[in-house]
């Protein structure tokens, strides 16, 4: 049974609905999951709640566009910049705790520099498919 509960989502408390609570519970239990949900579902709250609760060392968030990268950076900077290095430029030095936010083609440069990835979020991963976005996907079939 899954319950609705209040969580710290970074400098404020939010009440997660049952489905959000279920996803967060699985993540906190260390399970790998894929979530497909509409924009209004509140996936960002789940990410923020996980970071606030677990305080992972390295979070990597892959986003489909530069605009979404900037929006995500602003949101997470307000909430977590006192504890995390927010990385979205290739020349940013990593700190002890990092949140990296990049479009898929920019993320590869940092992967070798990370000892571990505690949370990997691929926002709109279906767009990596040649069927959905031939310009951003791998050209291999």
Strand arrangement within the widest β-sheet reads: 4-5-3-6
**Tally of DSSP helical segments:** 4
Strand residue percentage: 15-25%
The SS-based structural class is: alpha/beta
Report how far apart the termini are: 42 Å
Query: What is the domain tally?
Result: 2
User: What is the C-alpha radius of gyration, as a whole number of Å?
Assistant: 15 Å
Mean pLDDT: 82
Keywords:
4-stranded parallel beta sheet, disordered C terminus, globular, 2 domains, 4 helices, 141 residues, alpha/beta
What does this entry look like structurally?
With 141 residues, the chain is an alpha/beta fold. The protein has two domains: 1-54, no CATH class; 57-141, no CATH class. Helices cover 33% and strands 19% of the residues. It is built from four helices and six strands. It has a four-stranded parallel sheet. Strands 1-2 form a two-stranded antiparallel ribbon. The chain starts with a strand and ends in a 19-residue tail after the last strand.
């Amino acid at each position: 049974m899954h319950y609705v509960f209040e969580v710290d989502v970074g400098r404020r408390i939010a009440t997660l609905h049952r489905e959000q609570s279920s996803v967060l519970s699985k993540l906190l239990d260390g399970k790998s999951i894929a979530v497909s949900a509409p924009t209004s579902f509140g996936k960002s709250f789940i990410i923020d709640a996980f970071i606030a609760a677990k305080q992972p060392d390295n979070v990597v968030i892959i986003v489909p566009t530069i605009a979404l990268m900037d929006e995500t950076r602003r949101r997470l900077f307000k909430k977590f910049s006192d504890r995390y290095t927010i990385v979205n430029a290739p020349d940013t030095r990593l700190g002890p705790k990092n949140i990296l936010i990049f479009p898929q083609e920019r993320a590869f440069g940092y992967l070798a520099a990370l000892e571990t990835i505690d949370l990997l979020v691929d926002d709109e991963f279906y767009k990596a498919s040649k069927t959905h976005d031939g310009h951003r996907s791998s050209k291999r079939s």
